[in-house]
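G., the chain you wanted modeled:
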Amino acid sequence: MTQDPPLIAILDDEPDIRRLLADTLEDAGFRTASFGRATEFEAALRRMAPDACLIDLGLPDRDGLALVHRLATQSGAAIIIVSGRAQVQDRVTGLELGADDYVIKPFDPAEVVARIRARLRKPARETSRNGQTASFAGWSADFDRYVLTAPDGAETPLSHAEAEMLRMFLDSPRRLISRTQMLESLGGTAGDSFDRAMDVRISRLRTKLGEDPRNPRLIKTIYGAGYIFLSEVGWS
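Predicted structure as tokens:
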């Protein structure tokens, strides 16, 4: 059975930008759905599940950053901001609120395609890790549903960005992961904004895992070197 190509949702109030992105992405083999207003986009999410969303921040009917944050907490889609806001603080804020990447207008359409492919690329897995559910220290993480389940059975949703980072740790338990390796694995762009976004994601993961920030049991910081995930991991 042939699998449908990934679906990319485009939200931008400029028709020319929507058309350029849709044409480029469809030429690259993706399916697309385009929207000029956030209300239309949010209504469509009730009947479709995009693999990635391209979100402009300057929307006529919603605050773009608030929409990004809501998507990050409620959807498993990759989120890429495409915006004319070029200030470092705008990029930092977007990444902190849950975006996976940030592209500044004007942009090269081929770069957007490359960034989407990087976000959707599945990491190579060893045979023992070919499942989508991981178990560790009484917890489980379901990467099909983007759900983290605590030892007491309580479920917490994971954003795409949080799930990416957790999967990176679970694929390499008890091994040091440097910030450079994290950057390569997560497909970000080197710089203060992405560094800060990684710190925020780790902080959020620790909070969802019930970690004491002064004495974490699972995600340990090795100052000047990187991080180590301290639990054994099983896959199913």
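The domain at 133-235 is CATH 1.10.10.10 (Arc Repressor Mutant, subunit A).

Shout if anything looks off.
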